[in-house]
């Protein structure tokens, strides 16, 4: 079997959180779908709440600190990404947007991405299409057609096994197809765009 890396970014603010719960369900379903396609998976989970101060430092200094750099490299070097955020004021959270803001400009270029969101009410579900999908399209990510929204009532009796479970499985299958069809991502090389000074001096 080939092995691919799946990065899972959760922007939940509490511990435990419904955002992390949804992220884990999506990761488990995607892992199973990739196994069915003959692909082994290494899952790397990023809890943004653990890096809130690191992200704020990056915003004001322009550089990631030692704790944040591996997180950015994990996301940039992944073969696929699951990104889940709580919805506040009809859009993604400020913590989630801050993380996206500090990613390298081309970090998600062509990367298969599955979008997820949570909120207390189903009235916020359109945020996936009017806020999150345009954001990742701007980043040139390959966004899976199905995004998954989970309101508080979706976690009730039969929720995960019922309609929410069906949405998770459908979205996971779409992401698995995108990841399996893509050439494996290589390691992130921070010096890839450094000019060849010997060649420059020989001109």
In short:
Helices cover 40% and strands 21% of the residues. It has 203 residues and is an alpha/beta fold.
Describe this structure in words.
α1 (18-36) crosses α6 (163-181) and α2 packs across α4. The radius of gyration is 18 Å and the shape is globular. The model has no long low-confidence stretch (mean pLDDT 90). The protein contains seven helices and seven strands. It has one domain (2-201): Rossmann fold. Strands 1, 2, 3, 4, 5, 6 and 7 form a seven-stranded mixed sheet that branches. β3 and β4 (91-92) form a beta hairpin. It has 203 residues and is an alpha/beta fold. It has helices at residues 18-36, 52-61, 69-76, 94-102, 127-138, 163-181, 197-201; strands spanning 2-10, 39-47, 80-88, 91-92, 112-119, 142-143, 148-151. One of its GO terms (molecular function) is oxidoreductase activity. Residues 6-155 form the NADPH-dependent FMN reductase-like domain. Keywords: Flavoprotein, FMN, Oxidoreductase. Its EC number is 1.-.-.-. This is CE1759 family FMN reductase.
Write the CATH architecture name: 3-Layer(aba) Sandwich
Helix content: 40-55%
SS element count, helices: 7
Strand content: 15-25%
Mean pLDDT across the residues is 90
Tag the structure with descriptive keywords:
alpha/beta, 7 strands, 7 helices, 203 residues, seven-stranded mixed β-sheet, Rossmann fold
Question: What is the secondary structure topology, with strand pairs?
Answer:
Layout: E1 2-10, H1 18-36, E2 39-47, H2 52-61, H3 69-76, E3 80-88, E4 91-92, H4 94-102, E5 112-119, H5 127-138, E6 142-143, E7 148-151, H6 163-181, H7 197-201
Parallel strand pairs: 1-2, 1-3, 3-5, 5-6, 5-7
Antiparallel strand pairs: 3-4
Helix pairs in contact: 1-6, 2-4
């Amino acid at each position: 079997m080939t092995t691919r890396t799946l990065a899972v970014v959760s922007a939940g603010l509490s511990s435990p959180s419904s955002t992390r719960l949804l992220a884990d369900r999506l990761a488990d379903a995607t892992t199973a779908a990739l196994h069915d396609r003959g692909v082994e998976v290494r899952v790397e989970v990023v809890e943004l709440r653990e890096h809130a101060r690191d992200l704020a430092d990056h915003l004001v200094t322009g550089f990631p600190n030692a704790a944040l750099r591996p997180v950015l490299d994990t996301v940039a070097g992944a073969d696929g990404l699951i990104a889940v955020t709580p919805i506040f004021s009809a859009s993604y959270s400020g913590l989630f947007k801050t993380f996206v803001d500090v990613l390298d400009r081309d970090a998600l270029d062509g990367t298969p991405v599955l979008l997820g969101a949570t909120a207390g009410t189903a009235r916020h579900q359109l945020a996936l299409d009017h806020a999150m999908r345009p954001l990742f399209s701007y980043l040139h990510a390959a966004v899976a057609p199905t995004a998954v929204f989970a309101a508080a009532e979706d976690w009730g009796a039969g929720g995960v096994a019922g309609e929410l479970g069906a949405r998770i499985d459908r979205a996971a299958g779409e992401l698995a197809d995108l990841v399996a069809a893509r050439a494996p991502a290589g390691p992130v090389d921070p010096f890839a765009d450094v000019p060849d000074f010997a060649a420059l001096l020989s001109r």
